[in-house]
Each structure stands twice: as C-alpha cells, then as structure tokens.
Specification:
The protein is of the alpha/beta class and 365 residues long. The chain has 14 helices and 5 strands. α5 links the parallel β4 and β5. It is elongated and about 110 Å long.
C-alpha cells in the first residue's frame, strides 16, 4: 500500500479547524482542506492537503492500493512536534487494514516540515517527498528556514554574528572617539582585537584557552600548591628575563652579535629561571605527597634544575670572560653539576628500594 502522508508540523489544521488529527481517508482529507481554506485561505498547509488528495486520485496502480492521511505536530514546531507526528503516524498505520507492505509518499510545504522525515522514516519506508509551496515563495521560505537554523546554532552564531557585530561597532566607536578627542589609534586597537579574535577562531585556540581556564579554576578550588608556585615561578622567570636584558646591555661590545647576546642573556637570567624551576618542582612534589602519589624519585627534579643551572652559569661566564670565570671555574661547574645529578639519582633510587612501602603509600601513612 502507498500512503500519501501530508505533514502539518505546526498543527495549523488542528488549531484552526474542528478536525481531530490524524485525518485518514480521501474524503476526510478533502473536507479538512476545505475547512482550513475557509478559515485561513493564506495557510500553505491548505496546498499540502489538496496536493495529497490530488496525488491520491492521480496514482492509479492496480498492484497496490493508495490511501491519504494528514498528521500534525504542535504549535511550537519543535522536538515535541516531531514526537507528536510520530505518534500520529503510528495511529495512521494501525488504522490501515491491509496485509500489504506500507510505503509512504510525504507531502510538505517547506524545509521546516521536512525536519520530521527521520521520525517518519523510523516507522515506515519513504518512497519520496513532495514539497508544495507557492512558486514565488519557495526560495524565500528556504532562505528563511536556513537563516533561522544558522541563528539557532550557538557555534555558528558565535562565529558569524560576533565578528559582524564588532565590524558594525567600529564606525560608532570611531565617532565616539572623535567626539571625546581620543587618538586615532583607537581604530587600530579595535582592528587588532578583531584580528586576534578571527585568528583564535581560525586556529582553534579558544579550546586551549578554555582548557587552561578550567585547569586554573580546578587548581584554585582544589587547594593545589602548584598553582601558587607556578605563579611565583612565572614571576621569577619575568625577573630573569629583565636580568638577562640587563646582562646584554652590560656587555662590553656596544653591538654584540647574536651568539654573544644570547650567552649574555642566559648568564643574566639563569639563576632566576633556576629558582623558578626549583619552586615549581617543589610545589608539584608537595601536591603529589598530599594526593598520595609521591615517589622518592620526584625529589630529583629540584636537584636536576640546580645542576643544569650550575653548568649553564659556568659555560656562559666562561664565554663572556668574567674575571672569576677561568678554565678552572668552568671545569668545577661542569663537574659539580654532573656529580649533583648523579648523586641525587643514586641517593633517591637507594631510598626507594629500601623503603618501597613508604613510596607506594605516598608517605601519608
């Protein structure tokens, strides 16, 4: 059996006439169409009902019978409307007294009603879809529904409307800036902000920033010491950068080469960066201890940082030709750094072997 199924997703037929849905049968559908046309001649669902009757009369197939029905949704035309259409399709199928396999030919008045096709397809195979709209309004309705879906999608809305809104604000902001006597760089700042936004969206960096903000929030409320030590470490690195720049300025050569400037920068910053590494590693060790995941080998981190800093200080001081940094000083720093790293590794490896229970329990016993 072929079922010509007319879809009225927003339930104009049920709301504007006295007909109860679903409406099944050729004469009943025609009467419903006439009633809806008398109530609201401009309603496009009138065309849907008459098209269903037309297809019913037009299809003449001796191999199978043809039936026509109208199913409706709800006034909101949302998910609940799709569910209502599904229930009415079940009612229609249950009312068909036939032993034949039922196939559907769906008739709609536009793209919005066609959103319910998956619901219908889950209940009955669909042989085709007929869209019935006034010819002059077909493209307009499709464009309207597409634009409506774009605005309903949060991701698309943020991608399109936010830059558009910023662009529209540039002109009034420029007028306000001119009235207030602000410098012309205001437009440059706005353009830079817009460029950064587009760049972040294009590269997908907003996800990384959201993850960073989430980690910071969790660290704040979870009482993690590493959050505080990371802030202190960042401050020490900033101080180290200043110290490195001052060391570059203090180089005897007024125009140092790239290699010399790099060596001077490392010489001036290494002690501050090393302090930052030690502070951050101690914070991480503390969090591991409090969380029950402490291992003795974790204590190697600050010693490794100190060893690396000692080696770098000796190398950079030697290359810069500092008064105290002769070949003996370089050899001493290289030896001391190596011994410090080896000694810490061996020491904590021995402790971990002798006290495995303490390490496994995180010393929280």
């Amino acid at each position: 059996m072929l079922l010509v199924l007319c879809v009225d997703l927003d339930d104009d037929l049920g709301r504007k006439t006295d007909f109860e849905t679903p409406v099944v049968g050729r004469d009943a559908v025609e009467d419903a169409a006439v009633a809806l046309a008398n109530t609201d001649p401009e309603d496009s669902d009138v065309n849907v009902c008459f098209q269903g009757v037309h297809l019913h009369d037009e299809i003449d197939d001796d191999r199978e019978s043809v039936e026509v029905a109208v199913v409706t949704g709800t006034a909101k035309a949302d998910v609940s409307a799709n569910r209502t259409v599904g229930d009415e399709v079940d009612t229609v199928l249950a009312s068909l007294s036939t032993g034949e396999d039922v196939h559907a030919l769906v008739v709609t008045d536009g793209a919005q009603d066609e959103s319910v096709l998956p619901v219908i397809r889950s209940r009955v195979p669909i042989d085709g879809v007929r869209r019935v709209v006034v010819r002059q309004a077909q493209d307009l309705e499709s464009m309207y529904y597409t634009f409506k879906r774009v605005l309903a999608d949060p991701e698309t809305r943020g991608t399109i409307l936010v830059p558009l809104g910023i662009l529209l604000l540039i002109y009034p902001v420029a007028i306000v800036a001119d009235e207030l006597g602000l410098p012309g760089s205001t437009l440059g700042v706005i353009s830079a902000l817009l460029g950064l936004y587009v760049l972040f969206r294009g590269l997908g960096l907003e996800t990384a920033i959201d993850d960073l903000v989430e980690r910071v929030r969790v660290a704040l409320f979870a009482g993690r010491v590493q959050f505080v030590t990371s802030v202190v470490g960042a401050a020490l690195v900033a101080v180290g950068a200043v110290g490195g720049v001052e060391a570059v300025d203090a180089v005897a050569d007024p125009d140092p080469q790239a290699l010399g400037a790099t060596v001077a920068f490392v010489y001036g910053a290494v002690q501050w960066v090393a302090a930052a590494g030690v502070v951050v590693s101690l914070g991480r060790i503390t969090d591991e201890y409090l969380g029950g995941g402490f291992r003795w080998r974790y204590l190697n981190a600050p010693f490794y940082v100190g060893a690396i800093a000692l080696v770098l200080h000796g190398l950079t001081a030697f290359f810069l030709g500092q008064g105290f940094a002769d070949l003996s000083y370089l050899a001493a720093t290289l030896t001391a750094g190596t011994l410090l790293g080896l000694a810490s590794t061996l020491a904590f490896a021995v402790v971990e072997q002798r006290y495995p229970q303490d390490s496994d329990s995180g010393l929280a016993g």
